[in-house]
Design goal:
The protein has 315 residues and is mostly helical. It has helices at 21-24, 51-55, 69-92, 96-112, 116-119, 122-132, 137-145, 153-170, 175-187, 197-200, 208-214, 217-225, 232-240, 259-274, 286-298, 304-313, and strands at residues 7-8, 16-18, 32-35, 41-45, 65-68. It is globular and about 65 Å long. It binds fe (ii) ion (FE2) (2 copies). Residues 156, 188-189, 268 line the site of one fe (ii) ion (FE2).
Length: 315
């Protein structure tokens, strides 16, 4: 149980982390504070209760809610669980925008405290999507292609995962195998959490040193995920999604990347080209993107059948 302080002075703001609205109802084991007009933090709810118990259903939710950064990691499983329950309801209600927002919130919350063990339950989230959208490939495609105002590694990962699941549905794969591959899509870029955000979001040409840093993300992510129990596909996709079968990729330049590495690799390219990642160029439409990737496939970068199946999974 975390140590509870009734009030914290404004000077402690560096220790606090702002809580987003959907998450706030899920916190149970850690205290929540609200920031007064004077900037101090006052205890709003104690550990061992939900905010709803404290506020009742009538009271309005105060703005500016915070938790202590040091408490956050402990609460991640309960946030994952709470948002997952909402996810099930939103999928049933066919609210694709809400579904996308919820998955992004779950992933963002999980990525905010990067501990490998906390990433494992994301498989439940992917499984929820697999089961909820079973037989509805068009919903997965809508999920992947729905634009959001802030394009980020999280949104990119959610999109890649949805496209991977669309591919799995097209191939008629079993739910368990689909969930493993979907999780691979969700976690493939987790190594970027360890690359300076300034470099990742830079709207300019990177220096050779910065470029090298970015190219470390597959190895960084792979090393990080090894601390927990993941299906082999997840580790392979993380390490190998920038490898190409002509040996021209990185980090190792292997010409024999695993299936998961190849699948996430081609979908990663497709997603990056069809979204306005980095904002310095226009997003491409699906067809010209597939033309471009087809050329790469003909040049020996991607496996022919895999590329073909992915292209057909979009139809
Ligand atoms: Fe990557
Ligand atoms: Fe990626």
């Amino acid at each position: 149980m975390p140590k509870v302080e009734q009030a914290l002075p404004a000077e402690r703001s560096g220790d606090m982390s702002r809580v987003k609205k959907p998450q706030v109802w899920c916190y149970y084991s850690i205290p929540i504070y609200w920031r007064t007009a004077g900037g101090d933090f006052v205890l709003l709810k104690e550990p061992g209760e939900f905010l709803r118990d404290r506020l009742g259903s009538e009271m309005e939710l105060p703005e500016d809610l915070f938790v202590l950064k040091r408490d956050k990691a402990e609460a991640i499983p309960e946030v994952q669980e709470g948002l997952n329950a909402e996810l099930i309801a939103s999928i049933a209600g066919d609210d694709v925008a809400r579904v996308k927002g919820l998955i992004a919130d779950i992933v963002e919350e999980t990525f905010s405290e990067p501990r490998a063990a906390n990433m494992v339950p994301l498989k439940n989230t992917v499984k929820t999507v697999v089961t909820g959208y079973a037989g509805r490939r068009e919903a997965l495609r809508r999920l992947a292609m729905m634009g959001t105002k802030d394009y980020s590694t999280v949104i990119h990962s959610v999109n890649v995962s949805a496209l991977v699941l669309g591919y799995c549905a097209h191939r008629g794969m079993e739910p368990e195998a689909s969930a493993d591959l979907g999780l691979s899509g969700l976690l493939h870029d987790v190594g970027k959490l360890f690359v300076d955000n300034e470099i990742l979001t830079a709207q300019r040409k990177l220096t050779p040193e910065e470029f090298e840093k970015v190219r470390e993300h597959p190895s960084l992510g792979h090393r990080f995920l090894q601390d927990a129990e993941f299906p082999p596909e997840v580790l392979e996709a993380c390490l190998q999604h920038h490898e190409r079968i002509d040996g021209g990729g990185y980090p190792k330049g292997t010409s024999l990347p695993s299936f998961a590495g190849q699948l996430v690799g081609v979908i990663d390219c497709y997603e990056a080209l069809t979204s306005d990642e980095r904002h310095y160029r226009e997003a491409l439409d699906p067809l010209p993107t597939l033309e471009l990737l087809k050329k790469e496939m003909q040049d020996g970068k991607f496996e022919r059948q895999l590329f073909k199946d992915f292209a057909y999974s979009l139809v």
